[in-house]
Amino acid sequence: MPTDAAPPGAPPRPGAPAPRVRPRLVTSVAESMTTAIVTGTYPAGTALPPEGALGELYGVSRTVVRESTTALAEKGLVSSQQGRGTIVLDEDRWNLLDPMVLAALYLRDDRLEFLDSLIATRTALECEMASAAAGTLSEQDADDLAAVLDAMGALIDDPEEYARQDVVFHDRIMRASGNRLGRAVVNGIQGKALDVAQYQGRPDRAHTEATHADHLAILAALREHDGDAAARAMRAHILGSWARRRPRDPDAG
């Protein structure tokens, strides 16, 4: 009986749809290759192994390798060059806001430098957003923030849960500012860092109490619609909190 199916192992007929590749498989390989590049397994200027070798390394087809390499190119990590293969690009070409690239950066030996840069970026953006929020925050928004802080006050003896609610508190202020791009940047760069032990530190009750006092000062400035005071309070909070939890030993955490 005639059939439209090609014999096993036969190449697809002209016009036949290309074989489908499981997106999760491509994502997994791209993530592993991203980590290898960012952490220095494949330094800038060197060529990635050929598709066949990468396929054997990851146990996948050439099609998966090809699509994974395309994903790397979209992140600014590699470039296909005639006669040279797929070349790793210099770090200044990388998309540092890409979640996979960020996650890999936080695995490097110099990750503290990137965490310091994250704090500097957060400070600049969140101070601006706190100032903007002070000018637009409604009484209801302020009451909602106060309710969040009241609930957080009951978590002083639970630093880990307090830290999770800290993210919620900051996000509400950013949302109130109306700066959607700034909020997206902060949430994006901080999202992966929240899984890094060096970023979280080992907060104790004293640290959490100091953080809570900072939050109350920020809320007070917002209630007064004082943009300058809100920005100053936010700056003191972000920088002070990082100074308390930043490890002195670069290899700690």
Automatic annotation (TrEMBL):
Keywords: DNA-binding, Transcription, Transcription regulation. CDD domains: WHTH_GntR. This is DNA-binding FadR family transcriptional regulator. Residues 23-91 form the HTH gntR-type domain. Residues 1-21 are annotated as: Disordered. It comes from the Bacteria. The keyword DNA-binding applies. The keyword DNA-binding applies. GO terms for molecular function: DNA binding; DNA-binding transcription factor activity. InterPro entries: GntR_C, TF_FadR/GntR_C, Tscrpt_reg_HTH_GntR, WH-like_DNA-bd_sf, WH_DNA-bd_sf. It holds the Pfam family GntR. PROSITE patterns: HTH_GNTR (PS50949). Residues 8-17 have a biased composition (Pro residues). Signal peptide: none annotated.
